[in-house]
Amino acid sequence: RASDLPDFGGLVKQIFAEFDLPVHEFLKIARDEVTFLADLAGSSFTDQQRAEVKRFRSGDYDVVLGMLERRIEGLVPTSSEIRLSIAKMLRGPKIKYAPIHRSLMKLSNRGVATTVVTTNFEFLLEEAARSIGVNAKTFALGGIPRPGLRKDFSGVLHIHGALDRDPNRSGDVIVSDHDFGEFYLRRRVVPDFIYDAARLYNIVLVGYSANDPPMRYLLNAVAADGSRFGDLKERFTFVGVESPDPVLMEDWKGRGITPIEYDNKSGHGALAETL
Question: I want to staple 162 with a disulfide (CB 3.0 to 4.6 A). Which of 64, 158, 199, 243 is the partner?
């Protein structure tokens, strides 16, 4: 957000603006739940569109993108225009790394190497690293090194994939429900990585909400392993709140994560200054 990039929900809204403008216009209007359901029922949308809108309302953005992609491009698209559009949004010429990117790269130096894991697709962390004299290599999905204590476990590790360096290609990125099924369940690329990393390091999550679609998968993978084995390191997350929220804190604890609460006013300024 500090680099004026959209969050997951904002990204999906932009995709609707390009591929289904009526749905985009519908989503722009804030409504309470009763009004929302009434307006949706009275709309001229197809059943597929209504299903996507309801999923968006629930925050299931990965499912929404998968449904939209299959509706627009079919079950087995030869190339995804939606994914190319996502890549274009994340490649804007005005998109630059922010001070928090530099801070994260400094904090990711564990002495023998600099290592940070990200679910983002762009290369702002790598650019920030170069600005402080760190040559952080890029690894994505199956190319990510196995977690270990040696210095070859290093670089910016894009566990949800990274943009292709060729602007005419989107790259292999995890954005849809089918993608999550492929890389979390079928190939097990991400869970196996997280299992190993959680045994070796204290993992600290920055910039996530408990309801982020990618985060649900990550937390489920770690928490399930933690319930069986006692050698996992404690995991932490920074949680921005407008006022103390003990229920939200318990929600995080129930997922096997220790929350660190902070005041999120001024665009999460307290977190940025702390880091």
Answer: 158
Burial class for 72, CB neighbours closer than 10 Å (0-12, 13-18, 19+):
middle
CA distances (Å), 145 to each of 152, 159, 171, in order? Answer: 8, 11, 19
* Residues with Cβ within 8 Å of residue 168, at least 6 apart in sequence: 84
164-182 pLDDT per residue, tens: 988 888 888 999 988 888 8
Query: What's the pTM?
Result: 0.90
Note whether 274 and 99 are within 8 A (CB). Answer: no
Of 107, 235, 2, the C-alpha closest to 115 is 107
63 with 92: CB under 8 angstroms? no
Strands 258-263 and 204-205: unpaired
Q: What's 261's DSSP letter?
A: E
Q: Which residue carries 């994260």 as its tokens?
A: 104
- Give the whole-angstrom CA distance, residue 161 versus residue 120: 8
C-alpha span between 196 and 200 (Å, rounded): 7
Side chain identity, residue 82? I
Q: End-to-end distance of the chain based on CA atoms, in angstroms?
A: 16
Q: What are the helix (H) ranges across 122-163? A: 124-131
